[in-house]
Amino acid sequence: MRTLLPTTVLVVLFAMGCRPEIGDECVTSVDCSAQGDRLCDTSQPDGYCTIFGCEPDACPDNSVCVGFGQEIDPACANADVGTDPRWPRFERTFCMIACETNDDCRDGYVCALPTDRRAVAIDLENELRGSGVCFVASDAVFQPPADPPSSCTLDDDEAK
Fold first, then answer.
1. pTM of the prediction?
2. Is the distance from CB of 74 to CB of 37 less than 8 angstroms?
3. Which of 51, 130, 132, 160 has a C-alpha 20 to 30 A away from that of 10?
4. Tens digit of each residue's pLDDT (9 = 90 or more) over 68-120
5. CA pair distance 21, 55, nearest whole angstrom
């Protein structure tokens, strides 16, 4: 019985030291956390361990809470539709690994400021605020539509 204790302790310490981090590769969410507190974003190349729906300053060490979809639809930007610009209803937040250079990111990912990818770091006090995060390498450039559709604009009769 006593000979099993040191072996058990070594196995537990080894498992704790190998805990996946935000931004690691994954196939399923179990690859990111056995406790279910992290998800595998399989829409990213080779998966991306993250925490979905993060709150400001709540991500693990060396990661930043990043919000996507925080802007109001350009078609509705001037419409009086009762939106609250302080909390965009379609915004989705994810913990993403912080970086300073591309070398800090795994293969296929680059270090970029969230604002360069139509996102925003929502951390308020995190010392990593203002740093880059590891995004999928992409040459795609966002092109806003030339003319927004009229579905969100008010007719003269409706505006009265």
1. 0.67
2. no
3. 51
4. 987 665 555 555 555 555 556 678 999 999 999 999 999 999 999 998 988 88
5. 18
